[in-house]
């Protein structure tokens, strides 16, 4: 991985980055990550949640800016490694009452959680998914809040206890109901219909639940950070795993179509 980035509008997967913002904010974020790495070495009994918190936006930034998918896969591997470190250290040194949020409290149910699950599925790394599943719920507590669509998404590859009739959390989180319906649908036609419905409401749905990334492309200030890209990797994962004709989904700016193409190419290579 480079510690510099030179903006190329032709590679920008959404075409929304400001050149100066991207180049400076990327440099700043890598500098901050290096400082965090050093701090973590000084506190070996503390779960490195700050590292994961900084690696995830870097992954999105790099994907949005046009990095090759093989580079994104390496960044994802790094994220999973530190998630496992968090879990291992927490299990060894933590107490039951010590709450560790790697991906934020479950009631937030932000865009990070479905995206990180979706990436595991697109890369077809079930070992990664096992770690991510544990990192979403480090206590393995079935009573703990979980978005039912996230559980259904995981269940597409790993047996996971979930109730497809469970209610979504208040505050607008039910915008993900079409995602759940797309996963549960028995026919490809139905799945495609529900995925279109989900993606058509994805941006405003994230606004309603308070996703702070929404509209950050409108004010890109390197000093304050912000825009890293808007992506729904969970939608791509469903389209890939259900082998859907995703032509109609490609109209949405935040549908990562080349990730689906890449996953399909890898599958053909190994058949």
From TrEMBL:
Q: Which residues form the PoNi C-terminal domain?
A: 177-259
Name the InterPro entries on file: PA2201-like_C (IPR028983), PoNi_C (IPR015025)
Name-wise, this protein is: DUF1911 domain-containing protein
Q: SUPFAM superfamilies annotated for this entry?
A: PA2201 C-terminal domain-like (SSF140731)
Q: Which organism is this protein's natural source? A: Neisseria macacae ATCC 33926
Q: Domain of life of the organism in this record?
A: Bacteria
């Amino acid at each position: 991985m480079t510690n510099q980035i030179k903006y190329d509008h032709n590679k920008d997967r959404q075409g929304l980055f400001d050149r100066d913002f991207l180049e400076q904010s990327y440099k700043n974020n890598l500098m901050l990550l290096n400082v965090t790495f050093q701090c973590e070495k000084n506190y070996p009994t503390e779960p490195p949640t700050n590292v994961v918190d900084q690696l995830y936006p870097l992954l999105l930034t790099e994907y949005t800016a046009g990095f090759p998918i093989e580079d994104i896969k390496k960044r994802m591997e790094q994220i999973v490694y530190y998630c496992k470190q968090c879990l291992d250290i927490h299990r060894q040194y933590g107490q039951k009452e010590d709450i560790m949020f790697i991906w934020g409290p479950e009631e937030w149910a932000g865009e990070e959680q479905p995206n990180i699950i979706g990436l595991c599925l697109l890369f077809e790394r079930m070992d990664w998914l096992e770690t991510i599943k544990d990192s979403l719920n480090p206590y393995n507590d079935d009573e703990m809040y979980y978005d039912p669509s996230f559980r259904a998404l995981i269940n597409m590859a790993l047996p996971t206890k979930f109730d497809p009739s469970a209610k979504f959390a208040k505050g607008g989180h039910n915008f993900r109901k079409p995602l759940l319906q797309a996963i549960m649908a028995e026919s490809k036609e139905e799945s495609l219909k529900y995925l279109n419905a989900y993606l058509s409401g994805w941006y405003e749905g994230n606004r309603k639940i308070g996703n702070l990334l929404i509209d950050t492309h409108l004010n890109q200030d390197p000093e304050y950070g912000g825009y890293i890209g808007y992506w729904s990797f969970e939608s791509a994962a469903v389209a890939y795993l259900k082998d859907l004709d995703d032509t109609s989904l490609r109209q949405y700016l935040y549908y990562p179509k080349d990730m689906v193409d890449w996953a399909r190419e890898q599958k053909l290579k190994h058949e």
